[in-house]
Each structure stands twice: as structure tokens, then as C-alpha cells.
TrEMBL record:
Residues 2-105 form the HPt domain. This is Chemotaxis protein CheA. The lineage of its organism: Bacteria, Pseudomonadati, Pseudomonadota, Gammaproteobacteria, Lysobacterales. The modification Phosphohistidine is found at H48. Keywords: ATP-binding, Chemotaxis, Kinase, Nucleotide-binding, Phosphoprotein, Transferase, Two-component regulatory system. SMART domains: CheW, H-kinase_dim, HATPase_c, HPT. It catalyses: ATP + protein L-histidine = ADP + protein N-phospho-L-histidine. Residues 520-655 form the CheW-like domain. It is an enzyme of class 2 (transferase). Involved in the transmission of sensory signals from the chemoreceptors to the flagellar motors. CheA is autophosphorylated; it can transfer its phosphate group to either CheB or CheY. Pfam families: CheW, H-kinase_dim, HATPase_c, Hpt. Signal peptide: none annotated. Residues 267-518 form the Histidine kinase domain. SUPFAM superfamilies: ATPase domain of HSP90 chaperone/DNA topoisomerase II/histidine kinase (SSF55874), CheW-like (SSF50341), Histidine-containing phosphotransfer domain, HPT domain (SSF47226), Homodimeric domain of signal transducing histidine kinase (SSF47384).
Length: 659
């Protein structure tokens, strides 16, 4: 098989192996909680698949590490060893190490490093034998221990999907090989059946390797071959070229760097697994569109006013099918948030052990779906919030008992749909925000002039200020003043919002509201002079008409209006974006009250045209970045409407006020 053809399968191998690692981690965590022995079998199967794939696709370092892990699991599976905390911890570290090796494989870097080599030796020591010998022999001993392996596959082995070359690569991960092909069963060319295996091999394996380890390589094909494994009494060291030929077969070894680079570049595009039912639905919709198009084509060839009702019916069908097609295509990009939630059991376990806390993690709504792009970017903000909840929110068992609580704190991650958005809540039953400490820190940093009259919501907003932290001691978990401002910025970049509610002594709730997709948004179309703007519906609080006397002018030319007991600034969009022929008097237009980052402003526009879905086009990619604008869309008449960036507009307003 050529390098290029192997590289075509790397991406699938990486994806499936990473899923296997996720399954291994979940099963190990379940074992840690007292799960049954069947979990060990699922962990072993995942490790065995990764080992076999690594050897097949030319990643011997990964295969060697996984082989040692598999050998340890085999001892547990056979009852020769009892599972305990130390083994679980060692296997969890192996999962982490393998994830790092996969990352390096996708970027074309060397897989092995000091961590992986050390871990391989620890696994080998746990199994009870020394680690595998290096790929190349540093010195030439007069004799070496090893094995003679006679391996003759049955003719039908290939039909069963088993590849003898993969088995040779797995053996190469155990030690030094000299391989001699046996050709006595190869028929003449006219009698050759390419679907059958006609070769056999005599293999010398040199190194301190157990017979069980070799038998494990052939475990899945033991009924499809003739196999003998005998001790090697004395043998000269294998010549280097022969080792290289086996360790680096076609598509691996020396060409591994090229192959991995190809895999890395192909992985940049990303992929989404789509259920066959969704594909079938799209095919059906395309069929309906073809039928509707044929109906409308009749009117293009010859228009008859008497058939106007049929034309209207065809256009209505076209609109209906187009909307359904849009929803189906968007559904292909929708993935369950469970793929993000699944990383947190391990994170919570490690952090709670490190901090001496007992934490019960509850995951709710894992099947709630959102756009793949949003899903990829929401992981880091959630990690910040979970770490913050465990470090700052939840108390130690001693402190919880002192306040009448149980020893175990509860942390709940919940996802659900609300309207056209997805909501993710991070809820803990800890101590809540320390109001006094937050106000004292805000006074020290000059963020507020006085702590009098500040509401709990306003106190909560202070923790989102850049560089804000109340931690007395800087640790690797908290106290560096980065985190909460990063959370808000990342969520806002996704077109979402973050809100906080705290109950002193009873916990805190962070609520993240996100759009279902970044490709299409619901918005209100607003006219401003000769221009048209889209205001995202998720940011709109209310639209009101104000009399002239409701406006208060402030020093510096700003304007305020009273809304629900509070004064809010007004942003005149025609001044902000230089629109001509716009209405000037406040009573002649409308004020759209919008909210982002916990702040509200009123956008003054001429009038509202109506609600519409906007297909978002990047303004930065097609023109340049414009402050206060997040993108553009093309309207039905072919004109362009700009989409307002509410958070950016509020930041512009704040900078002007500060100046």
C-alpha cells in the first residue's frame, strides 16, 4: 500500500482512536467508583484496537506504549491481578499520554518523548518485565534472548479483514526482528487468487519479551493461521537494514513524517459524522425541489394568467421546501453537547482530589444539540467555570459540616433549549460569591468609588473585569486574574451572553446563552436613513417610542433615557455609522433596548421593517473589520444589510464615555 493511500485513512483512525480513548477514560472513572469487571473488557478492547491501528498506520511508538497498557489490562482481565487505585491512575495517565501522542501525530511531530518513555517503563514494570528494547541496537552482543516464530496464515485470512503486515508491525514494537518470507505455497501466475494469502513467514524476535506478549499479538487470528513460538537459543544480532525494513514498511517508518503531515493537513478541514437518516431526508428534499422546479419551469416557457393560482402554489411549495432544506442542512452540523460534557468527570475527579474536596457531578441534557462551530469553542469557557466552581465555590467537607451541609458538594452542568438559543447552566451548592471580598478588591483596583448601594447583580458583574481576582494566594488553579473575563469574551465572540446569580451560603449559578448556529441568526430589520441594519433578536429586550421630554442630556453630549427604573444611554446609529437622510428627532423614530455583557443601551433607529432570518457573511473576509458590526447579509432585493455587534457597540459607547 502506498504512503498516499495510507494517509487517506489516518483521519478516520485518529477520530476513532480518540473516541476509544474517551471510552477508556469513562470506563476507568466508572471503575474508580466501584464499577463491575465488564468495564475492564471494554477498556482492553479499546486499547487493543488502538494498538493494532497504530502498528498498521506506522506509529510504532504509540503501538509500543499501548501494548504495555494492554498487557497490564490482560493480567487484570484474566484475574491474575486485582484492579486497584494505582492501576486506574496509571491507566488514566496512559490515556492522557496517548492523547498527546495523537496530537503530535496529527501535526507531524515525533510521537515519543520523555513522558511517554517513562510511562512505558512504568507499565512494563507493573506487568512484571522490563520494557521493550529500543528500535536500534546500540551494541552488538554475542548472543541475545528471543524467539523463533513460524507464522503461516490460512488462505482465507485476508477475507476475514485481517492484515498479516499489521501483525508484523505489532511484533516490531516488541523488539528486534529478522523476517524471512516463505514462498513455497505461492502458485503460478495463472492460478493466483489475489483474495487469498499464499505467504508464510519465519520471524526471529530478539529481546526480553514474554511468550504471552507474542501470543497476544496473534490473539485475534489464532484460528486463521498455523503458529509456533519457540525460544531462540542463540542468534547473532539482526542486521540494521532488516530492522528498518520491518520497522518502517511501506507507508510508515521513514515516510512517517510525510504521512503524518498529510494527515494533519487533511484534518484541518474537520469532519462531522452524519446519520444515514439525515442523508435520506436530504435526498427526499432534493427530489421535492426537482418536482417543484419542473412545475415552475412550465411558467417560464409560457405564462398563462389563468394559471396564476398554480404559480402561487408552486412558489409556496418552493419556499416551504427551501426552509425545510435549510433546517436539514443546519441539522447536519448539529452535535450533542455531551461530547463536551464528557471531559468533566475526569476534570472534577482530579481537581477534587487535589483540593481535598468531595464533589458529585451531575450532567443533564447531554443530548441537547448545537452547531459544531459553537460546540468546539464553548469547551474552554466551561472548563474555566467548572474549575472556578470547585476551587472558589464548593467548600471542603469540614467547612460544609460547619454550615450544616453534607460533606459532598454538588456541581451540575445542564443544557437545554430556550427559544432560538441554547442555555448552559453551571450550578454549585457552595458558599456563593464573597460580596465583601469582591467589593474590597474592586475598591482597591479603582473599579468602584463606593460599596454603598451596589446590588448583588452588580457585584457579580465585577468578577468579569479583566485581572480581577480575590484569591489571596496564586496557585495553578486560581488567583492569576485571568479566567472570568476570558469566559465572557469567548462567549460574546460566539454571539452569546453570560449571567450570574449567587445565593450567599447556598451556591452560584452561571448561565451561558448561545445561538444554536453561527451561520444563520434571527433578527429585526431596522431602517436608518438610506441604510438597513439587522439587530440580533437574542439581544433585544424591548422596542419603545419615546417623547422628546424623556431624554436627558449629559456632559459631553451623551443622552440618557429612563427604562425600568434605571437610566440607560442612547446610541444614535446614524451618527455611529454616518448614515444620511436619517430622522433626527427622538419622537420620530424608535428606540430598541438591547443588552450584552449585563449592560443595556437604546439604539435609535428610524423604524422597524420586520423580523427575518439572516445568513451571516463575514465582513472582515470580504472587506475589513468594522467596530460595532459583526457581519453582513444579503436581502431579498440583492442589497446588503449590516448586522449589529451589540457587545462591540456597547464597548465603543463605554470608551467614548471614558474619554
Amino acid at each position: 500500500m502506498s504512503n498516499i493511500s495510507i494517509a487517506q485513512f489516518h483521519k478516520v483512525f485518529f477520530e476513532e482512536s480518540l473516541e476509544g480513548l474517551d471510552a477508556m477514560e469513562a470506563a476507568l472513572l466508572a471503575l474508580d467508583e466501584g464499577g463491575d469487571a465488564e468495564l475492564v473488557h471494554s477498556i482492553f478492547r479499546a486499547a487493543h484496537s488502538i494498538k493494532g491501528g497504530s502498528a498498521t498506520f506506522g506509529f510504532p511508538d504509540m503501538a509500543a506504549l499501548t501494548h504495555e497498557a494492554e498487557s497490564l489490562l490482560d493480567q487484570v482481565r484474566d484475574g491474575r491481578r486485582a484492579i486497584d487505585k494505582s492501576i486506574i491512575e496509571l491507566m488514566l495517565r496512559t490515556v492522557d499520554c496517548l492523547r498527546g501522542m495523537f496530537d503530535r501525530a496529527q501535526s507531524g511531530q515525533p510521537l515519543a518523548n520523555g513522558e511517554s518513555e517513562s510511562l512505558k517503563q512504568q507499565l512494563a514494570a507493573a506487568v512484571g518485565h522490563a520494557g521493550p528494547t529500543a528500535t536500534k541496537v546500540a551494541a552488538k552482543p554475542a548472543a541475545a534472548s528471543g524467539w523463533i516464530i513460524q507464522f503461516r496464515p490460512h488462505a482465507g485470512m485476508l477475507a476475514g479483514g485481517n492484515d498479516p503486515l499489521r501483525l508484523l508491525r505489532e511484533l516490531a514494537a516488541l523488539g528486534q526482528l529478522v523476517v524471512e518470507a516463505q514462498l513455497d505455497r505461492v502458485p503460478t501466475l495463472d492460478a493466483l487468487d489475489p483474495t487469498e494469502c499464499h505467504l508464510g513467514w519465519r520471524i526471529e524476535l530478539t529481546g526480553s519479551v514474554s511468550r504471552e506478549a507474542i501470543a497476544g499479538v496473534f490473539e485475534w487470528v489464532e484460528d486463521e493461521c498455523d503458529l509456533s513460538i519457540e525460544p531462540l537459543v542463540a542468534a547473532a544480532p539482526p542486521p540494521a537494514p532488516a530492522v528498518e525494513a520491518v520497522s518502517a514498511p511501506a507507508g510508515a517508518g521513514g515516510a512517517a513524517g510525510t504521512t503524518r503531515s498529510a494527515a494533519a493537513s487533511s484534518n484541518d478541514a474537520g469532519s462531522v459524522r452524519v446519520g444515514i437518516d439525515k442523508i435520506d431526508g436530504l435526498i427526499d428534499l432534493v427530489g421535492e425541489l426537482v418536482i417543484t422546479q419542473a412545475m415552475l419551469d412550465q411558467f417560464r416557457e409560457e405564462f398563462d394568467p389563468s394559471r396564476l393560482a398554480m404559480l402561487q402554489q408552486g412558489l409556496a411549495q418552493l419556499a416551504r421546501h427551501t426552509r425545510t432544506l435549510q433546517e436539514s442542512v443546519m441539522g447536519i452540523r448539529m452535535l450533542p453537547i455531551g461530547s463536551v460534557f464528557n471531559r468533566f468527570p475526569r476534570l472534577v475527579r482530579d481537581l477534587s482530589q487535589k483540593l481535598g474536596k468531595q464533589v458529585k457531578l451531575e450532567l443533564v441534557g447531554e443530548h441537547t444539540e448545537l452547531d459544531k462551530t459553537v460546540l468546539e469553542k464553548i469547551g474552554d469557557p466551561l472548563v474555566h467555570l467548572v474549575r472556578n466552581a470547585i476551587d472558589h465555590g464548593l467548600e471542603t467537607p469540614e467547612k460544609r459540616r460547619a454550615t450544616g451541609k453534607g460533606d459532598i458538594g454538588t456541581l451540575r452542568l445542564e443544557a437545554f433549549h430556550r427559544g432560538g438559543s441554547i442555555v448552559v447552566e453551571i450550578v454549585d451548592d457552595g458558599a456563593g460569591l464573597n460580596r465583601e471580598a469582591i467589593i474590597a478588591k474592586a475598591l482597591q483596583k479603582g473599579l468602584i468609588k463606593s460599596g454603598e448601594g451596589i446590588s448583588d447583580d452588580e457585584v457579580g458583574e465585577l468578577i468579569f473585569q479583566p485581572g480581577f481576582s480575590t484569591a489571596a494566594v496564586t496557585t495553578d488553579l486560581s488567583g492569576r486574574g485571568v479566567g472570568m473575563d476570558v469566559v465572557r469574551r469567548n462567549v460574546v465572540d460566539l454571539g452569546g451572553t453570560v449571567a450570574i446569580k449567587t445565593r450567599p451560603g447556598n451556591g452560584t449559578t452561571f448561565t451561558i446563552t448561545l445561538p444554536l448556529t453561527l451561520a444563520i441568526i434571527d433578527g429585526l430589520r431596522a431602517a436608518v436613513g438610506d441604510e438597513c441594519y439587522i439587530v440580533p433578536l437574542v439581544s433585544i429586550v424591548e422596542s419603545i417610542q419615546l417623547p422628546a421630554e424623556a431624554i436627558r442630556s449629559v456632559t459631553g453630549g451623551g443622552e440618557l433615557f429612563r427604562f425600568r427604573g434605571e437610566y440607560r444611554p442612547i446610541v444614535r446609529l446614524h451618527q455611529q455609522f454616518g448614515c444620511t437622510n436619517a430622522r433626527q428627532n427622538i419622537e420620530d423614530g424608535l428606540v430598541i433596548v438591547v443588552e450584552a455583557d449585563g449592560n443595556q443601551v437604546g439604539l435609535f433607529v428610524d423604524e422597524l421593517i420586520g423580523q427575518q432570518q439572516a445568513v451571516v457573511k463575514s465582513l472582515e473576509a470580504n472587506y475589513r473589520r468594522v467596530d460595532g458590526i459583526s457581519g453582513a447579509t444579503i436581502l431579498a432585493d440583492g442589497s446588503v444589510a449590516l448586522i449589529i455587534d451589540i457587545a462591540g457597540l456597547i464597548r465603543l459607547q463605554s470608551r467614548r464615555k471614558a474619554a
